[in-house]
User: What shape does this take?
Amino acid sequence: MEFSSKKELTTEEKRKIALERAKELRGRIEDYLQVKDKIFTGFDIQDKVQQQKKRILEVLGGTEENWNDWKWQIANRIKDTEMFRKIFDISDEQAEIIDSVGKKFRWAISPYYASLMLEPNDKDPIYLQSIPTMAEITDNYGVDDPMGEEFTSPAPAITRRYPDRLIINVTNQCAMYCRHCQRRRNIGEIDTHKPKEVLQEALDYIRANPEIRDVLITGGDALMLSNNMLDWLLGELDKIEHVEIKRLGTRTLVTLPQRITPGLCSIIEKYPPIYINTQFNHPREVTPEVGKAADMLIKAGAVLGNQAVLLKGVNNDPNVMKKLNHALLKVRIRPYYIFHAKQVTGTSHFITSVDEGLEIMEKLRGYTSGLAVPTYIINAPQGYGKTPVLPQYILESDGNKVKLRTWEKREIDYQVRH
Ligand code: SF4
Assistant: This one.
């Protein structure tokens, strides 16, 4: 029945219709309500995490103070099976796989991120993202640089793929080397920050191109730079009049929230506006430490967004993705993008079908707050840019008259008059 034909109804009758509709709406998410408490966030597993933290500190000979010190976390990254086996119970065969795959693709995991692992095997989303698995070397599908970044670098340390914005790659270092990393070709054997002279050249390029209004500092991980270096770089960018906003690309909020210190926040506070994009891929990564770090950054004036990567075995499930987005909103990090995993050498086991991504988007839009609905993106090969992909909501159109398909799959004719 159309609402216009319901004018004659009494208030009571209208309430009855509203109650029926409310029941129908609740039914739309019944499947999610059934499973949501079984999908754990990092807040839900704190007993286990604290036990593991204690064990890791014992093995590494560290203190609570050490744990909260990001430099200690970096210096004590777990990066060999001898150390890993002192903490987690793995088989000889598993250790051999980690060793042999790790020779080809370097690995290192912060003690903090390791404490979030519930099971030391590839069914665990934390393990799968951080520890080498056989799948990395059994399929050679993909290329080292699917984005053709080498061909979009008009100046040292710069990647430019868009008209008004660009990236400065400041380091190859990360708190952890993610197994799905699109830039794993840059990880190499040693951690190196770009020398100041190279960054000067990058800044010169930005100064000479007044159409650049948005600069993303990334790597590697932008927050692997020292506070002094960040202070200098953000300060230089801040002096360039046409640079309206600065962004930092970092996964430290996920893998090393201890990096968010009062000292770092005082730098962030000096150079607004600063947007920070991070990469949470599973609800278990959202922990009390993350909540605290996010709170500090927000108080320093930063705006926080999440760019998840759609990863088979980690988050290729509409319910997991919904729970992740809800958990992020609770700590004031706005879900921004879901990236389809790129076809990078050694990562094909993470790649899902596009249909799986569309199904996730279908189950988000309308089923939950718009704030919890990021944009699903396929990065066009060769650096041709982010391309949004979404379910089809316009079934027919002549420009003014369209047939819409709503989130509940109702078909509705919509006429525009102008
Ligand atoms: S933090 Fe980012 S750049 Fe570093 S390894 Fe992970 S995905 Fe790659």
